[in-house]
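Risk register update: the risk of archive-format incompatibility is retired. Evidence:
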Amino acid sequence: MAKQRVLITVKTYPTLSDKYLELPCTAGFREDGSWIRLYPVPFRLLEQDKQYKKYQWIEADIAKNKADSRPESFKVINTAEIKLLDEISTGKKRDWAERKSLILGKNTIYTSLADIIKLAHSDTLSLVIFKPASIDDFVVEKAEADWPAAKLDGVLSSLKQASLFKEEQDLSEFKIMPKLPYKFSYRFKDAQGKSSTLMIEDWEIGQLYLNCVKKYGEQNAVAKVREKYFDDFAKTKDLYLFLGTTYEWHVRKAPNPFVIIGTFHPPIDNQGNLF
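Archived output:
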């Protein structure tokens, strides 16, 4: 395929991979506004000048990922040829107008879980922008503190082999991302009043927790994450959720195959203008 431009809007927290050591899921939008999932991309193994940021345009040769039946799933043919382009900077209200135009202005905003589940079951889609009617709670649950031992041993063994035999890439300093000891979820209602609890798998929430642990300690870190995602995003921002299906639950046609893979939280526009 010809090179395509993709605006990166999603990077999920990495999981262990036998082949790639660890992998996040990356997703974003083409220039026409259509969703695209890029997988697998071993993000932290990319050269520094290939490591894209969220809300950055990239250019890459892509092809349909034949191992993944979900319609938006593609793969990068050669990650060494990823080209980083313009960033849409964050933080200033004037910048949100451009992001809102690119993301909200070219896409369907779904409000019904039943609708998107039906579309996922028919293999019509696996990525959506979702606007909840209300965010009712931020749920924190204890999780296993460590990666499964057998899986971790296999990855560490692969890392050792790579360090010994792949002279073109020095992996001696590479450290596997730590396992998050908590699951963070939103409990929300959709436009039909259906209540659901979905896990947030965004890399940003994981990194926020890890940074807060270093600064405030574990229990205070949980409170800081809640403060950001519930007290700030859910209560003071115009919050949208990027939802994606997991491959396993998509092909099994699970009752709800979606998880939260990212948030989009521009300031509330009190003037009533979308953009």
